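dumping the sequnces here before i forget
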Amino acid sequence: AQSVTQLGSHVSVSEGALVLLRCNYSSSVPPYLFWYVQYPNQGLQLLLKYTSAATLVKGINGFEAEFKKSETSFHLTKPSAHMSDAAEYFCAVIPAQRSGGYQKVTFGTGTKLQVIP
Amino acid sequence: DAGVTQSPTHLIKTRGQQVTLRCSPKSGHDTVSWYQQALGQGPQFIFQYYEEEERQRGNFPDRFSGHQFPNYSSELNVNALLLGDSALYLCASSLLGRDEQFFGPGTRLTVL
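..and the predicted 3d for all of it:
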């Protein structure tokens, strides 16, 4: 079974500082990986995804993530935090090869990002 | 282009009651998935519907059932509600075989 582990349920950064949110996956073969953001009382919005193309993936709002097979990691970064980045971030995984094309997405437990002015 | 919509936004029920939540997928999408997100947790996969049939199911009891209509909209039904069913229920739509799912804003269910 595929799974993801997010290290740190809460992360605080100062406005303008580097954002680093950690995600490690567990899978016998490299899966497809995603980062979603959830603002309070809202659904999830896709930030970026890795689907076996480039290992460095750029997403929306200045975020990017690098797939590292040797470390089974897919950490999310942003060079300079903005107040509007305060939200909860979820790492998610689906198998790269899926029977019938069906998609069971497995989410991590989430990391709440606080941005301090 | 409307995205994924869900209704109602909030719902309060008492233990033992039944509830129906509704979802309209993004235009052009044919697959609908439902997730339960308990407070402070990540979303948990309930099931996925395609061509009006349940295609995949997560680790949820039979009290959780669903339906997909010919227009691809979907319902989630929960019978014999328990306090532990209180959560945000998220609907996501996609095209079969595609990687990206689009999420609705969710329905907040409170069971008293």
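The CA atoms of residues 24 and 73 of chain A lie 4 Å apart.
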